[in-house]
Amino acid sequence: MGDEKALEKLSSWEREVKTRLPGGSTLQARAFNYAYEDSKKIRKHLLGSTTYHKNQDDGVEFVVAVKAIAYPGGVCSVWIYFGLIDTDLSNN
Prior knowledge:
Structural class: alpha+beta
C-alpha cells in the first residue's frame, strides 16, 4: 500500500497473468500483505475478507501466489495474491 515499486510490480505481474488466461475467461483477485507468517491467522483473514472460496460455479479455478520476504531481526513480509479465474464462457 503506497509503495510505488510494489504497486508497479503487482500491476506488471497482474497484466502478465491476465495475458496467460484462456480466451474469454476473467480474473478476480486481490493482493494481501501480512507482517507475520502464522498460516492459520492468514487463512482465517483471507477467507473472511473475500468470498472467492464460496464460488462453486462450473469453470471456476482458484489462483494463489505467495511471496515471503525475510528481513533482519526476525521481521517478515508475506504477500499473497488470492482470487479466481472464471473459464466458463456462459457466465461472461
